[in-house]
Amino acid sequence: MDRHWNLKRANKGAVRLVEFILGSVPTGPVNLADALLSPAVLRPFVVNWQEVALHFIRGVQADAIADGAPEASSLLTRLLSYEGLPALLQSAALEEAPRPLLPIHMRKSDTSLHFFTTIATLGTPQDITVQEIRIENFFPMDEPTNRFFREPA
After folding, report:
1. Residue 5 within a domain
2. How far apart are the C-alpha atoms of 125 and 88, rounded to whole Å?
3. Is residue 2 part of a domain?
4. Domain containing residue 53: CATH number
5. Which domain holds residue 57?
6. In the 3-class helix/strand/coil scheme, how is the chain assigned residue by residue?
7. Strands 111-121 and 134-140
8. Predicted confidence (pLDDT) per residue in 25-62, tens digit
């Protein structure tokens, strides 16, 4: 994804997860922060949504402050318009340090998936193109989730 959370590429595991949760893969541009925090996309399937939302919205806030670009500010404004996000931010302790990984629990019907995600950035001050790239990795936290990603659909 780029620095504004726009999906650039996804591997087979990510595609399988999205197909399972949503029934199909979106055909147009996808903003991962939007998809995760929107009540109309992934939010209904994220069991620990408050924890996940707080992690992501703080990341977008930090990006908007550091970046100063209109796209970053616009994304933050859009995300904060979603029901429950402003109240969640106000109720959360500000002194909590961001964690390098985030546990996510997703559930659809009888299938429950537990994994953690971490986001890596690459680059040096001399290479702005590489610095724009973020790589998100999902790792299974239990055997049923591991099987979900390893076995053929």
Report:
1. no
2. 35
3. no
4. 3.30.450.180
5. 12-150
6. CCCCCECCCCCHHHHHHHHHHHCCCCCCCCEHHHHHHCCCCCHHHECCHHHHHHHHHHHHHHHHHHHCCHHHHHHHHHHHCCCCHHHHHHHCCCCCCCCCCEEEEEEECCEEEEEEEEEEECCCCCCHHHHCCEEEEEEECCHHHHHHHHCCC
7. antiparallel
8. 888 899 999 999 999 999 999 999 999 998 888 888 88
Residue 129: partners with Cβ closer than 8 Å, 6 or more residues away: 123
Residue 67: its pLDDT value, please? 78
With left for phi above 0 and alpha for psi between -120 and 50, is residue 5 left, alpha or beta?
left
Return the sign of the alpha-carbon dihedral for residues 87, 75, 62, 4: positive
Residue 6 lies in a domain: no
| Distant-in-sequence, close-in-space partners of 147: CB < 8 Å, separation ≥ 6 | none
